[in-house]
Design a protein that fits this description.
Elements lengths: L1 H27 L4 E17 L2 E16 L13 H29 L1 E2 L5 H4 L5 E7 L4 H5 L6 E7 L2 E4 L3 H10 L4 E8 L2 E8 L13 E6 L1 E2 L3 H31 L10 H14 L1 H20 L6 H14 L5 H32 L2
Antiparallel strand pairs: 1-2, 3-10, 4-5, 4-9, 5-6, 5-7, 7-8
Length: 356
């Protein structure tokens, strides 16, 4: 429960700072802000200062900025293209700053390598650790525990050194149904346990009944961590666009949603990360904040990138798109995004809640 609360609040903070970026840039450019809210309605408490309503809302997740869009001299539409673009991109910049700070701190204190690209994993000594043990599984019955490090798999007179998760998966598949000895490291001491492997991997968590992760850490000095974070964000940017390409093909060519994750799935994944350790949890939050920034830059109407696209079109045409047309396009895409989000949420509930 604690991991769930931490993940929910942390994700809320990412959204809150995105909206805070919009708010601060709007105020800096003297654009009217009607309301800045912490959480989402219904409203619990509010007060007004300098013509801005500040509200505390019942749903404690993120926040929102309600900017004056049209009709007055201090409205968003009345501003120059440069000012409007700076307000729109400020939320993205806020999320990039959060991601940068998270990854910089992790590189400085110890970045977990479990999900890093192979080029990073090669820079650190890794080991295979048990993250979860399924109740009544072979591992559970043998006395394996969360945090155990698998060093060697023994069968008859042979020993197989474990270097990565794939080694465990391959060897247990080869020895399915047999009794093996696992040499594990537990709290700085080595223990040897006998495990009767399952005869089928179709059961939960494979032949052993565990979730494994390759652990290890990369640590740099403060200045080196800044440099590595910049490089890492560049790598992430490339990987995200590769992933978006796969998602596009999967969604529009095959009609599949497996690679898409909504709020329920994000909270579930982040919660699992915090269960494994604070560094895992914050690593996932850094990925989410960076991904959120990139998503908001996409030229899709109803998100920041789509509105920036309208500004580019306005610059080229030397006149703005009509208010009616812009609202219509944004509303249509907003409805489509809501429908897609609803379908993904149902999928995530079935995957992360009903099946657990």
């Amino acid at each position: 429960m604690l991991a769930f609360i931490i993940s929910l609040l942390s994700l809320g903070i990412i959204i809150f700072f995105h909206e805070l970026g919009h708010f601060l840039m709007a105020r800096k450019n003297n654009v009217g802000v009607e309301e800045f809210g912490l959480g989402y309605p219904p409203k619990v408490f509010s007060f007004k200062k300098n013509n801005v309503t500040y509200s505390l809302n019942a749903i404690p997740f993120g926040g929102f900025t309600k900017i004056k869009e049209y009709g007055t001299e201090d409205s968003f539409a009345a501003q120059s293209i440069g000012k409007r673009a700076s307000i729109l991109i400020a939320g993205v910049i806020a999320n990039l700053i959060i991601a940068f700070l998270i990854f910089m701190i992790l590189f400085n204190v110890g970045m977990p390598i479990f999900a890093l690209p192979e080029s990073y994993q090669d820079k650190a000594v890794s080991y295979v650790a048990i993250k979860e043990v399924v109740k009544d599984s072979p591992a559970f019955k043998a006395g394996l525990e969360k945090g155990d490090i698998i060093k060697t798999i023994k069968y008859l007179n042979e020993s197989f050194v474990v270097n990565n998760v794939q080694d465990v998966q391959d060897k247990t598949a080869e020895l399915e149904g047999k009794k093996v000895q696992l040499v594990i490291e537990r709290k700085d001491s080595q223990v040897e346990l006998e495990v009767a492997l399952r005869e089928s991997a179709e059961a939960e968590k494979g032949y052993l009944g565990v979730i494994l992760a390759e652990e290890g850490y990369l640590k740099y000095s403060f200045l080196e961590s800044i440099k590595e974070t910049i490089i890492f964000l560049g790598v992430l940017f490339q990987e995200i666009f590769k992933g978006l390409g796969r998602i596009f093909v999967s969604l529009f060519k095959h009609g599949k949603l497996e690679e898409l994750t909504g709020p329920v799935g994000i909270v579930a994944i982040t919660t699992q990360g915090f269960k494994w350790g604070w560094n895992y949890g914050f690593y996932i939050l850094g990925l989410i904040s960076f991904g959120f920034a990139v998503f908001n830059l996409l030229p899709i109407p109803a998100v920041d990138g789509g509105r920036i696209l309208f500004l580019i079109i306005e610059k080229i045409r030397k006149r703005p798109i009509t208010q009616k047309t812009e609202l219509l396009i944004n509303n249509v895409f907003f409805i489509l995004l809501v429908v897609l989000l609803f379908v993904i949420t149902i999928k995530d509930i079935n995957l992360f809640i009903l099946k657990n």
